[in-house]
Amino acid sequence: MTQQNWSIYLSGEIHSDWRQRIEAGLKDQNLPVTTLSPVTDHGASDDCGVDILGAESAPFWKDHKGSKVNAIRTRTLIDRADVVVVRFGDKYRQWNAAFDAGYASAKGKPIITLHDAELTHALKEVDAAALAVAETPEQVVQIMNYVIAGKL
Question: Which domains, and CATH codes, for the chain?
Answer without folding.
Answer: 6-39+79-149 (3.40.50.450)
